[in-house]
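MODEL INPUT / OUTPUT PAIR
PAIR INDEX: 1
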Amino acid sequence: MENIFIFGQNQSRKQAMRNFITFGERIRFLREEAHLTLREVAGSINIDSSLLAKVERNERQPTKQLIKEISTYFKVSEKELLSEFLSDQIAYKILDEEAGLDILKIAEEKVSYLKTLRNE
Protein backbone atom coordinates (compact mmCIF):
# COMPACT_ATOMS: atom_id res chain seq x y z
CA MET A 1 0.00 0.00 0.00
CA GLU A 2 1.32 3.43 -0.91
CA ASN A 3 2.52 5.64 1.94
CA ILE A 4 1.63 9.31 2.05
CA PHE A 5 2.73 12.16 4.26
CA ILE A 6 0.02 13.71 6.44
CA PHE A 7 0.29 15.90 9.53
CA GLY A 8 3.97 15.16 10.01
CA GLN A 9 3.54 11.38 9.94
CA ASN A 10 4.03 8.73 7.33
CA GLN A 11 0.72 6.91 7.00
CA SER A 12 -0.72 4.38 4.64
CA ARG A 13 -3.53 5.63 2.42
CA LYS A 14 -5.98 3.48 4.41
CA GLN A 15 -4.87 5.08 7.72
CA ALA A 16 -5.09 8.56 6.23
CA MET A 17 -8.56 7.86 4.87
CA ARG A 18 -9.73 6.83 8.35
CA ASN A 19 -8.67 10.23 9.66
CA PHE A 20 -11.12 11.99 7.35
CA ILE A 21 -14.24 9.88 7.52
CA THR A 22 -17.15 10.55 9.83
CA PHE A 23 -18.02 8.43 12.84
CA GLY A 24 -20.92 6.84 10.96
CA GLU A 25 -18.75 6.08 7.94
CA ARG A 26 -16.21 4.44 10.27
CA ILE A 27 -18.89 2.18 11.74
CA ARG A 28 -20.10 1.23 8.25
CA PHE A 29 -16.48 0.57 7.21
CA LEU A 30 -15.95 -1.74 10.20
CA ARG A 31 -19.20 -3.59 9.48
CA GLU A 32 -18.54 -4.00 5.77
CA GLU A 33 -14.91 -4.97 6.34
CA ALA A 34 -16.21 -7.80 8.56
CA HIS A 35 -18.76 -8.75 5.84
CA LEU A 36 -21.68 -8.28 8.22
CA THR A 37 -25.18 -7.01 7.58
CA LEU A 38 -26.85 -4.22 9.51
CA ARG A 39 -29.21 -6.79 10.98
CA GLU A 40 -26.36 -9.01 12.22
CA VAL A 41 -24.52 -6.20 13.97
CA ALA A 42 -27.65 -4.56 15.34
CA GLY A 43 -28.89 -7.87 16.73
CA SER A 44 -25.56 -8.53 18.41
CA ILE A 45 -25.55 -5.16 20.18
CA ASN A 46 -29.29 -5.24 20.93
CA ILE A 47 -30.47 -2.27 18.89
CA ASP A 48 -32.82 -1.94 15.95
CA SER A 49 -31.15 -2.21 12.54
CA SER A 50 -32.83 1.04 11.44
CA LEU A 51 -31.12 2.86 14.33
CA LEU A 52 -27.74 1.45 13.32
CA ALA A 53 -28.39 2.50 9.72
CA LYS A 54 -29.16 6.05 10.88
CA VAL A 55 -25.97 6.14 12.94
CA GLU A 56 -24.00 4.98 9.90
CA ARG A 57 -25.59 7.75 7.80
CA ASN A 58 -24.87 10.31 10.55
CA GLU A 59 -28.59 10.96 10.96
CA ARG A 60 -28.64 9.87 14.63
CA GLN A 61 -26.07 10.43 17.33
CA PRO A 62 -24.98 7.39 19.29
CA THR A 63 -25.04 7.34 23.07
CA LYS A 64 -21.83 6.72 24.97
CA GLN A 65 -23.23 3.28 25.83
CA LEU A 66 -23.78 2.49 22.15
CA ILE A 67 -20.24 3.63 21.32
CA LYS A 68 -18.98 1.30 24.06
CA GLU A 69 -21.00 -1.63 22.69
CA ILE A 70 -19.81 -0.99 19.14
CA SER A 71 -16.18 -0.78 20.26
CA THR A 72 -16.51 -4.05 22.16
CA TYR A 73 -18.24 -5.77 19.26
CA PHE A 74 -15.64 -4.75 16.67
CA LYS A 75 -12.72 -4.97 19.14
CA VAL A 76 -11.63 -1.38 18.54
CA SER A 77 -10.67 1.23 21.10
CA GLU A 78 -13.63 2.86 22.82
CA LYS A 79 -11.51 5.96 23.36
CA GLU A 80 -10.72 6.11 19.64
CA LEU A 81 -14.38 5.80 18.63
CA LEU A 82 -15.44 8.39 21.21
CA SER A 83 -12.74 10.76 19.93
CA GLU A 84 -13.96 10.29 16.37
CA PHE A 85 -17.55 10.96 17.42
CA LEU A 86 -16.66 14.08 19.42
CA SER A 87 -14.43 15.44 16.66
CA ASP A 88 -17.38 15.10 14.27
CA GLN A 89 -19.54 17.09 16.69
CA ILE A 90 -16.97 19.89 16.89
CA ALA A 91 -16.44 19.92 13.13
CA TYR A 92 -20.19 20.15 12.41
CA LYS A 93 -20.63 22.96 14.93
CA ILE A 94 -17.96 25.20 13.37
CA LEU A 95 -18.40 24.11 9.76
CA ASP A 96 -20.35 27.19 8.73
CA GLU A 97 -18.55 29.65 10.97
CA GLU A 98 -16.26 32.14 9.28
CA ALA A 99 -13.55 31.92 11.95
CA GLY A 100 -13.46 28.12 12.21
CA LEU A 101 -9.76 27.59 12.87
CA ASP A 102 -9.59 30.55 15.24
CA ILE A 103 -12.44 28.99 17.23
CA LEU A 104 -10.45 25.77 17.54
CA LYS A 105 -7.40 27.62 18.83
CA ILE A 106 -9.46 29.48 21.42
CA ALA A 107 -11.22 26.27 22.45
CA GLU A 108 -7.86 24.55 22.92
CA GLU A 109 -6.74 27.36 25.22
CA LYS A 110 -10.01 27.16 27.15
CA VAL A 111 -9.65 23.41 27.60
CA SER A 112 -6.18 23.93 29.06
CA TYR A 113 -7.52 26.62 31.38
CA LEU A 114 -10.49 24.52 32.49
CA LYS A 115 -8.19 21.58 33.22
CA THR A 116 -6.14 23.76 35.56
CA LEU A 117 -9.31 24.80 37.38
CA ARG A 118 -10.28 21.15 37.86
CA ASN A 119 -6.89 20.34 39.31
CA GLU A 120 -7.02 23.11 41.92
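PAIR INDEX: 2
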Amino acid sequence: MIDLRRLVRMGRSTRQPVSEPTRRTLALAEPVILVAITQNPDDAEKLHQIAASYGWRISIVGSSDAAIALLKEQPTPLVICDRDISGETWRDVLAKIVALPQAVCILLASGVVDDYLWHQVIRHHGYDVVAKPFRPEELRRAVTFAWLWHGWAHRHYAEVLRKPTA
Protein backbone atom coordinates (compact mmCIF):
# COMPACT_ATOMS: atom_id res chain seq x y z
CA MET A 1 0.00 0.00 0.00
CA ILE A 2 1.33 3.46 -0.89
CA ASP A 3 1.39 6.13 1.78
CA LEU A 4 0.32 9.29 -0.09
CA ARG A 5 1.30 11.55 2.80
CA ARG A 6 4.89 10.35 2.43
CA LEU A 7 4.86 10.96 -1.32
CA VAL A 8 3.54 14.50 -0.88
CA ARG A 9 6.25 15.30 1.71
CA MET A 10 9.02 13.94 -0.54
CA GLY A 11 8.69 16.90 -2.88
CA ARG A 12 9.08 19.51 -0.13
CA SER A 13 12.10 20.13 2.01
CA THR A 14 11.39 20.24 5.72
CA ARG A 15 14.58 22.21 6.34
CA GLN A 16 14.31 25.93 6.74
CA PRO A 17 16.76 28.05 4.76
CA VAL A 18 19.76 29.20 6.78
CA SER A 19 19.96 32.96 7.10
CA GLU A 20 23.14 34.77 6.05
CA PRO A 21 24.10 35.82 9.63
CA THR A 22 23.67 32.22 10.81
CA ARG A 23 25.68 30.96 7.86
CA ARG A 24 28.50 33.39 8.70
CA THR A 25 28.38 32.35 12.36
CA LEU A 26 28.59 28.68 11.42
CA ALA A 27 31.49 29.30 9.07
CA LEU A 28 33.35 31.49 11.56
CA ALA A 29 32.70 29.46 14.71
CA GLU A 30 36.31 28.34 14.52
CA PRO A 31 39.01 29.46 12.10
CA VAL A 32 39.23 27.57 8.84
CA ILE A 33 42.50 25.65 8.60
CA LEU A 34 43.68 24.33 5.27
CA VAL A 35 46.67 23.05 3.36
CA ALA A 36 47.24 24.03 -0.27
CA ILE A 37 49.39 22.01 -2.65
CA THR A 38 50.63 24.20 -5.48
CA GLN A 39 53.89 24.89 -7.29
CA ASN A 40 52.71 28.13 -8.86
CA PRO A 41 53.98 31.17 -6.91
CA ASP A 42 51.17 33.39 -8.27
CA ASP A 43 48.53 30.93 -7.04
CA ALA A 44 50.29 30.69 -3.67
CA GLU A 45 50.29 34.48 -3.32
CA LYS A 46 46.61 34.71 -4.29
CA LEU A 47 45.71 31.98 -1.79
CA HIS A 48 47.62 33.81 0.96
CA GLN A 49 45.74 37.04 0.16
CA ILE A 50 42.34 35.34 0.13
CA ALA A 51 43.09 33.41 3.32
CA ALA A 52 44.23 36.58 5.10
CA SER A 53 41.09 38.47 4.05
CA TYR A 54 38.81 35.73 5.46
CA GLY A 55 40.89 34.93 8.55
CA TRP A 56 41.80 31.42 7.42
CA ARG A 57 45.00 29.70 8.47
CA ILE A 58 46.72 28.30 5.40
CA SER A 59 49.90 26.30 4.86
CA ILE A 60 51.18 26.08 1.29
CA VAL A 61 53.41 23.22 0.18
CA GLY A 62 54.82 22.24 -3.20
CA SER A 63 54.31 18.48 -3.28
CA SER A 64 52.05 15.73 -2.03
CA ASP A 65 54.84 14.30 0.11
CA ALA A 66 55.22 17.63 1.93
CA ALA A 67 51.43 17.80 2.34
CA ILE A 68 51.27 14.26 3.73
CA ALA A 69 54.05 15.05 6.22
CA LEU A 70 52.24 18.24 7.28
CA LEU A 71 48.89 16.45 7.60
CA LYS A 72 50.48 13.74 9.75
CA GLU A 73 52.14 16.37 11.94
CA GLN A 74 49.06 18.54 12.37
CA PRO A 75 45.78 17.03 11.17
CA THR A 76 43.99 19.48 8.89
CA PRO A 77 40.46 18.86 7.63
CA LEU A 78 40.75 20.69 4.30
CA VAL A 79 43.19 20.47 1.38
CA ILE A 80 43.26 22.43 -1.87
CA CYS A 81 45.23 20.53 -4.47
CA ASP A 82 46.39 22.03 -7.74
CA ARG A 83 45.50 19.88 -10.74
CA ASP A 84 48.86 20.55 -12.40
CA ILE A 85 51.62 19.33 -10.11
CA SER A 86 54.80 18.26 -11.86
CA GLY A 87 55.86 14.69 -11.30
CA GLU A 88 52.48 13.35 -10.14
CA THR A 89 48.88 13.26 -11.24
CA TRP A 90 46.06 14.78 -9.22
CA ARG A 91 44.50 11.31 -8.95
CA ASP A 92 47.64 9.98 -7.25
CA VAL A 93 47.71 12.94 -4.86
CA LEU A 94 44.05 12.42 -3.92
CA ALA A 95 44.68 8.69 -3.39
CA LYS A 96 47.58 9.45 -1.02
CA ILE A 97 45.55 11.93 1.00
CA VAL A 98 42.46 9.73 1.16
CA ALA A 99 44.63 6.87 2.48
CA LEU A 100 45.42 8.90 5.62
CA PRO A 101 43.59 7.78 8.77
CA GLN A 102 41.96 11.20 9.26
CA ALA A 103 39.05 12.48 7.19
CA VAL A 104 40.07 15.25 4.80
CA CYS A 105 37.95 17.27 2.35
CA ILE A 106 39.88 17.78 -0.87
CA LEU A 107 39.20 20.61 -3.30
CA LEU A 108 40.86 20.32 -6.71
CA ALA A 109 41.95 23.64 -8.25
CA SER A 110 41.86 23.63 -12.04
CA GLY A 111 41.92 26.08 -14.91
CA VAL A 112 39.39 23.88 -16.69
CA VAL A 113 36.23 23.10 -14.75
CA ASP A 114 33.55 20.92 -16.27
CA ASP A 115 31.12 18.20 -15.21
CA TYR A 116 33.45 15.41 -16.31
CA LEU A 117 36.27 16.66 -14.07
CA TRP A 118 33.86 17.19 -11.17
CA HIS A 119 32.58 13.61 -11.51
CA GLN A 120 36.14 12.30 -11.64
CA VAL A 121 37.07 14.23 -8.48
CA ILE A 122 34.02 12.89 -6.64
CA ARG A 123 34.82 9.39 -7.89
CA HIS A 124 38.33 9.71 -6.44
CA HIS A 125 36.92 10.82 -3.05
CA GLY A 126 37.48 14.54 -3.52
CA TYR A 127 34.91 17.08 -2.40
CA ASP A 128 34.70 19.73 -5.14
CA VAL A 129 36.49 21.53 -7.97
CA VAL A 130 37.38 25.23 -7.77
CA ALA A 131 38.27 27.35 -10.77
CA LYS A 132 41.62 29.01 -11.33
CA PRO A 133 42.48 31.82 -11.33
CA PHE A 134 41.08 31.95 -7.82
CA ARG A 135 38.18 34.31 -7.25
CA PRO A 136 37.71 35.16 -3.56
CA GLU A 137 33.93 34.67 -3.42
CA GLU A 138 33.96 31.37 -5.27
CA LEU A 139 36.82 30.03 -3.15
CA ARG A 140 35.07 31.22 0.02
CA ARG A 141 31.90 29.39 -1.00
CA ALA A 142 33.71 26.13 -1.75
CA VAL A 143 35.87 26.27 1.38
CA THR A 144 32.92 27.20 3.62
CA PHE A 145 30.77 24.35 2.33
CA ALA A 146 33.64 21.87 2.65
CA TRP A 147 34.40 23.12 6.17
CA LEU A 148 30.75 22.87 7.24
CA TRP A 149 30.38 19.43 5.64
CA HIS A 150 33.49 18.16 7.41
CA GLY A 151 32.20 19.44 10.75
CA TRP A 152 28.79 17.89 10.17
CA ALA A 153 30.26 14.56 9.07
CA HIS A 154 32.61 14.48 12.06
CA ARG A 155 29.77 15.18 14.50
CA HIS A 156 27.41 12.76 12.74
CA TYR A 157 29.82 9.83 12.66
CA ALA A 158 31.03 10.49 16.22
CA GLU A 159 27.37 10.33 17.31
CA VAL A 160 26.84 7.09 15.37
CA LEU A 161 29.94 5.57 16.93
CA ARG A 162 28.73 6.48 20.45
CA LYS A 163 25.38 4.72 20.02
CA PRO A 164 25.24 1.28 21.66
CA THR A 165 24.87 -1.66 19.32
CA ALA A 166 22.11 -4.20 19.74
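PAIR 2 NOTE: The two ends are 30 Å apart (CA to CA).
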